[in-house]
Amino acid sequence: MSYLSVKNVKIVGMAACLPKTVEENISLKIFKDREEAQRVIDSTGIERKRVVKPGTTASDLAFQSTNELLAELGWERESIDCLVYVGISRDYIAPITSAILQGRLGLREDCYCIDLPLGCSGWVFGLSNIGSLLSHGDMKRGLLINAETNSLNRSKRDKTVNPLFGDAGTVTALEFDPNWDHPMEFEFGADGKNYKAVITEYGGLRHPTTPESLV
Fold it and tell me: Which helix (H) or strand (E) holds 16?
């Protein structure tokens, strides 16, 4: 295991944006009947999820929540030194989504921007990264954005993942504070030998997308 302690950084606010549309797992057509759907609900604890309409990206959700949080905090956009975007629902292969959000939000051109393509563990890894950037005091304020539109990048016919993942965008605001005496403690690990357990097989350079892979 790898350990990390981040000092002098505190969380000062959080906000989220959820789509209006609610999808009930009990009604999904991928199940042969309600009994099969109920078994999945019982085993996962997931009854429903929020889903976006086609054309809405994860960065759209993040843009909304970030604007609301900045207004609530009263932060000047020029005061933000770094932006970390965490998610696998990127707007494009290139450029990075964090840079797109930097432009849309009106942040400084010298704002540090980076994407981290992580899923379930994303917020924790993102927090450790942005916390480390801020802990030195050269950067004072940062935004950690986590957003996904899984409903758009998962097959509607795949009953192993379709009932599990919904759509949302969140933002966490952090700032450097030399008097903050509550360090963030992290313990990391990865199980790369079993990577196929969570694989999206097609769409990368090893297995490009084909018409057959979209079925």
Answer: strand 9-17
Instruction: Tally Cβ neighbours within 10 Å of residue 201.
Output: 9
Cα–Cα distance, 168 to 59 (Å, whole number): 10
- By CB atoms closer than 10 A (0-12, 13-18, 19+), residue 74 is exposed
Q: Are 142 and 174 in contact (CB under 8 A)?
A: yes
Tokens standing for residue 65:
């929540």
The 10 Å Cβ neighbour count of residue 118 is 15
Q: How far apart are the first and last CA of the chain?
A: 39
Q: In sequence order, which residues have a C-beta less than 8 Å from that of residue 85 and are 6 or more positions away?
A: 59, 62, 96, 97, 98, 101, 113, 114, 115, 116, 145, 147
Strand duo 2-6 + 184-188: pairing: antiparallel
What are the two backbone dihedrals, phi and then psi, of residue 93, each rounded to the nearest 5 degrees? -60, -40
* Bridge partners of residue 141, in order along the sequence: 175
pLDDT tens for the chain, residues 1 to 215:
799 999 999 999 999 999 999 999 999 888 989 999 999 899 999 999 999 998 999 999 999 999 999 999 999 999 999 999 999 999 998 999 999 999 999 999 999 999 999 988 999 999 999 999 999 999 999 999 999 998 887 777 777 778 888 999 999 999 999 999 999 999 999 899 998 877 778 878 898 888 877 66
φ/ψ of 150, rounded to 5, equals -65, -25
- Rounded to whole angstroms, the Cα distance separating 51 from 55 reads 12
